[in-house]
Amino acid sequence: MAAELLRESYDIQGRNFDKAGEISSEIKALLSGLGLDAASIRRSVIVAFEAEMNVVMYAQRGTLTVILSDEAIDLEIRDVGPGIPDIELAMQAGYSTASDEMREMGFGFGMGLPNMKKNSDVFRIETEVGRGTSVLATIRLNAHG
Amino acid sequence: MVELKHGFKIDVDKCDGRMHCMRACPTQAIRVKGGKARVVPELCIDCGNCLAVCPRGAMTATTIPFTALDKFKFKVVVASPALFAQFGLNVTPAQVGRALLDLGFDAVWEYAVDIELIDRAISNTIKAWPGPFPLISNSCPVVVRLVQVAYPAMVEQLISVDAPREIAARELKRRYAQEKNLKPEEIAAIYITPCQAKTISILQPAEGVTSHLDGAVAIKEIYNDLLFRIRHNASKEDGGETFLGIGEVFHWGAPEGEFPHLSREHYLPLTGLQDVIKVFDDIEKGKLRNIDFLECHACPGGCIGGNLTVENVYAARSKSLRLSSVIPKPTAVFEREVSRRFAAEDLSLRGSLRPRRLEGDGLDLRERVSRKKRADELTRGLPGVNCGLCGAPSCRHHAEDVAAGRADVGDCVFLSRDRIETLRKIYVGGKSQAGSPAGSNLEEKPKNGGQNVR
């Protein structure tokens, strides 16, 4: 594995819709400040935003860690929350357990996890019902970007 | 790399370094060193905020002086629709057109056809676009530059249809060259502009081609002359009736880049740079995918709110609404002309838009990471009050400038006493002792400032 150049962690508070999206904005600022290629930044920010929203919607709290190496951006999201009983089902586009309240706020269309996977080169998800969920997403840097 | 041009210049003699511009700049492109403002060219998006806030008028738009037009044999106006909203409610577009001719222009272009052409081209492009959505309008040069500088991943979403003003200039040269038996270079296509940003889009188009327009004249610059002639003509009997055709300039009073063909549901008009930035941030996170097209204008209220207009934006809007309410439906002649030209012309952008190259792009990733870490470390040692006395808009920017080797960390007054002494000399004058002369001077300043506010 390529050497780690930079690691930054951010805390996400569950149910805090008011602040939702701020951490992905910070990650965008971090990555563009580093002058990474536009496509990798775009994909990372989409993954970070969906992950942040999932924690805000379902979990009590979580952390999002960005790890940069010469070759890739790794995003690690770990939350303390209900976990996902059926991951296969949750990974299907359009499947959602969002409440009416969340949908009214414009969230929960069942595109979160599939969208994260689509925008990652490596996507791993582990979950334990009643404990929480961890996601590791790797976005390779585009050397030609 | 080609040197980046901007649509304004700073008069160093007038600049007294009070930092209004630095604080108003949305892309943090201004530094004030040695009591003088300067622009970091690759960060400037030509929004014009600095022009508006400078109390000394030290920043001015680079429009072309009216006299510079004399070298052309035939001068044609392409007028921003914003021009027609600048005058009283009873002044008609025909009267404004007549006054433009009196001012020395040889023709006023029927811009409505070009606007309609672009409207159609945009609708077609949206229908054929595979994604990502939304597409973003490119008629506001500030929006284009904002995307190039701050949202590089969204550059492909800028729609690749040319601006109506460019299509108009190309066509008018073709037509008048034929009609008047002139060479195209003897014909001037002059844009009457509501903002300095359009001048930069003529001087140096973002897509890297040469503009069809030959220059821009500010609405502000000709306003008084036009008003005088409108009044003068109105007192005569003919009242502008001899000028035919001008009634067809705008069929709907549609501001450039507004698209009646698009369904309201999938089309968002946005005005004001702050709002545009907010929405772009959301797009970057993958939101708003259900919107097809964003029509974005950096000025609040759109082009009628441009910094080279005269009338306030609300009065201008009222006038503009009135104009569109009385203008008749398009004639058959108009429709035929639109169809003929739509079939004959290529309306796509002639070059491709790319992210702007920024300072540090050439460095390898490790160097950039170590700069960032150095800047983080420096930031922790700075006061965080963002006073601007170091010459950068915030402590963070100062830290970044230092890490990149562009500034000295000791420019921070909290870290260096000498810096205060230097600033005292620049801002308070040569009396460097903290005793009576400089002291009394310091006390006078706020009083004067207070009177100005009232």
Give a brief outline of the structure.
With 145 residues, chain A is of the alpha+beta class. Helices cover 34% and strands 30% of the residues of chain A. In chain A, 34% of the residues are buried.
- Global Rg of chain A: 15 Å
What strand line-up does the widest sheet of chain B have?
A: 6-5-8-9
- Count of discrete domains of chain B: 2
CATH architecture of chain A: 2-Layer Sandwich
Shape of chain B: globular
Major sheet summary line of chain A: 5 strands, antiparallel
CATH architecture descriptor of the largest domain in chain B:
3-Layer(aba) Sandwich
Care to describe what's here?
The complex is a heterodimer of chains A (145) and B (454). Chain A is α+β, with helices and mostly antiparallel strands and 145 residues long. Chain A contains 5 helices and 5 strands. In chain A, helix 1 runs antiparallel to helix 2 (38-58) and helix 2 (38-58) packs antiparallel against helix 5 (112-118). The longest helix of chain A is centred in the N-terminal third of the chain and has 21 residues, at 38-58. Chain A starts with a strand and ends in a 5-residue tail after the last strand. In chain A, 34% of the residues are buried. Chain B is α/β, with parallel strands linked by helices and 454 residues long. Chain B folds into 2 domains: 1-62, Alpha-Beta Plaits (2-Layer Sandwich), CATH 3.30.70.20; 66-344, Rossmann fold (3-Layer(aba) Sandwich). Chain B has 15 helices and 11 strands. Chain B has a 4-stranded parallel sheet with strand order 6-5-8-9, with helices on both faces. In chain B, a hairpin with a 2-residue loop joins strand 2 and strand 3 (36-39). Chains A and B meet through helix 1 and helix 2 of A and helix 9 and helix 12 of B.
Top keywords for this entry?
heterodimer, A: 145 residues, Heat Shock Protein 90, 5-stranded antiparallel sheet, globular, B: 454 residues, alpha/beta, Alpha-Beta Plaits, Rossmann fold, 2 domains, 3-stranded parallel sheet, 15 helices, 10% strand, disordered C terminus
